[in-house]
Amino acid sequence: MRIMAIDYGDAHTGVALSDPTGFLVGSTTTIHSRRPEVVAEELVKLIRLHCPDEVVMGLPKNMDGTDGPRAQLYRDFAVRLEEASGTPIILWDERRTTVAAHQLLFNQGKDGRKRKKIVDAVAASLILENYLDYKRLKRE
Fold first, then answer.
1. Which of 25, 72, 98, 132 has its CA 20 to 30 A from that of 122?
2. What is the DSSP letter of 63?
3. Angle 112-139/97-107 helices, nearest 10 degrees?
4. Looking at residue 98, which CATH number applies to its domain?
């Protein structure tokens, strides 16, 4: 079962894909565009190329679990992507994933410019890891 995770952003959108077993995070990439229609088009291409069984997209939540100020924008984009791809989009709590991605890259010695280019792909991989962990625990 292959799963794709998306960390949607204003200028950069990270994408992570699990291995074919749905057990490990495999590849990552970043879409660099500020235009939602371009991001949706590129994501549809990736969905059609990799044929994931599930697509998970991060949803910004406040620390208390309520929707963050940008949540509706993300919900609207998920609907747009679902309609364009014909694939259901699962919204997944992404609290602190970008912060954790920055910290991970900083700890690996990546400077600010290098972090900026790949942080969204790392955040997508963290969303995917969290989702895969959830699915594993649910099966047990």
1. 72
2. T
3. 120
4. 3.30.420.140
